[in-house]
Amino acid sequence: xxxxxxxxxxxxxxxxxxxxxxxxxxxxxxxxxxxxxxxxxxxxxxxxxxxxxxxxxxxxxxxxxxxxxxxxxxxxxxxxxxxxxxxxxxxxxxxxxxxxxxxxxxxxxxxxxxxxxxxxxxxxxxxxxxxxxxxxxxxxxxxxxxxxxxxxxxxxxxxxxxxxxxxxxxxxxxxxxxxxxxxxxxxxxxxxxxxxxxxxxxxxxxxxxxxxxxxxxxxxxxxxxxxxxxxxxxxxxxxxxx
Length: 242
Description:
60% of the residues lie in helices and 2% in strands.
């Protein structure tokens, strides 16, 4: 792919970009998935470490089974936030903010996700048996579109809360992404998220809003799994069944 066509024509095979550009796109994908993969457990009270660990393991297994044909990352799904909020809502802290995980009900919410995973297996079997086109006839844009919109609207309050930490930095990130996506050329046009992260992070660092204290205090090695917060605790009395 020549330089003039980058950003102006669809890219159906990232390998045609070459290794250096693929590496840059990989970094962008990492930052894009990291925000979502961390945000979901933060909003639901799950362990961020466990989420990242099993997202990575699941992605590696997926690529192994798909033989590397599908460039995808299996991260957190915003579709489950509503279910978690209904079954295991976050509890208020001393200041009244909903930041305390509901560890008593989290295993039951996780069990619901397991059941949803079983539905995924059924759908996969249907795709295998009848083909993509026949199954997707039941999921037109008029069905999937409102679902995506409702998920986005449910997350709007979280986005506003995050922006309230520093509206100037947030606006810098948004403007960089918009400008690069609309008026950028070549690689700039296809990596707006990465550029938005880099520029806004630099602005935040210069403004003294970047704090590495939590990073310095974090242990180098630790066990991310807390048994009582997993679905398995339902079966050994780890969760209150009363």
